[in-house]
Amino acid sequence: MKREYPCVEIDLCKITHNAKTILSMCSKKGIEVVGVTKVFCAELSVVQAILKAGITHLGDSRVKNLMNMKDICCKKTLLRISMESEAEEVVKYSDISLNSELETIKVLAKAAKNINKVHNIILMVDVGDLREGVLVKDVIGTVKEILKLDNIKLVGLGTNVTCYGGVLPDKNNLGKLVKLKKDIKNMFGIEIPIISGGNSSSLYMVMNDTIPKEINQLRIGEGILLGRETAFGKPIPKCYDDAFILKGEIVEVKEKPTVPTGEIGRDAFGEKPYFKDIGIRKRAIAAVGRQDIKVDGLTPLDENISIFGASSDHLILDITDSSKVLQVGDIVEFKMDYGCVLAAMTSQYVKKYYVKELKVAKGNTKSINLA
Ligand SMILES: *Cc1c(COP(=O)(O)O)cnc(C)c1O
């Protein structure tokens, strides 16, 4: 079969394996794993790979993605705070949505009533990261109002950290959720079943056994896809970090100096570039660029290749020391970080190929044995 480039090759076995590993680690602590599908635009093959691991609850930030998954039978949570304008779709396509605005929750209540449904919500609490959530001091007041609404059921408290402010989850900030759960019970006599303690950055607390025992749900995207926790960027034991491989085709190979000739102005992105003079190098251009990927999120599988930089459509590589002699038409391969997977999966110019047999990438030292 003729391949198109650039492409991302997605190893579904590695994703299933990672999901299984994380699920087993979390289940031991009584934590439900919500498999987050937004990074790969909820592509159904990847969704199936995650469900195959035994995960039964999916989360996405976009209603459109949940809509695409409407025929998949599992629990679904809308992760991004709902827009009022999409309330009808939210109650139709999600079982649970994360919310922080009373007015929106009222609109959801009305939409749920119209279709005779009870919509579940998790109230997001801002414990310090300054992205979404009601401030801790306002939670009780908000809960009081939510409890007055018909067709809305408050099923959880949640938080999201390490996303905007870079605040790390710890016993102290997750402890605030635990305390609120107790306060709500004392004040209103109701039990809040779900305490959703964050994303892949909370996994380190599962790994080192410091996660408060009341936390019983985590929403995990990157951990499953790239096999690492995101508080410190450490690999999760026995997980793969190369389930997504970017492949680009070389369109030029030439020996050139490392410093441009002429006066240096701004590059195509308005930045003033800096060049270190390391003499004449053998350079390759791969036909993939910033429209498709995040350059600093790429790691060549061949450790002897380095990246000079990229413009919208050209990735410029130093292949002087490459393990294999590379020519025009050859393919170069890269591991990707979160931002890079996000960009590549979203780019219509990047072809996606799903691999069903386990492929251990060349030059990958971190690969593990499944047996
Ligand atoms: C994206 C997202 C997640 C998943 O984050 P990862 O770091 O990929 O695990 C969890 N919760 C919310 C609200 C999100 O938007």
UniProtKB/TrEMBL annotation:
Query: What molecular function terms (GO) are annotated for this protein?
Result: alanine racemase activity; pyridoxal phosphate binding; RNA binding
SUPFAM superfamilies (UniProt xref) = PLP-binding barrel
**Limits of the Alanine racemase N-terminal domain:** 10-224
Superkingdom is Bacteria
Q: Which keywords annotate this record?
A: Isomerase, Pyridoxal phosphate, RNA-binding
Per the UniProt record, one Pfam family is: Ala_racemase_N
PROSITE patterns xrefs: S4
Q: What Gene Ontology terms describe where this protein resides (cellular component)?
A: cytosol
Q: Which cofactor does it need?
A: pyridoxal 5'-phosphate
Keyword Kinase found: no
Q: What is this protein called?
A: Alanine/ornithine racemase family PLP-dependent enzyme
Give the organism the record lists. Answer: Clostridium muellerianum
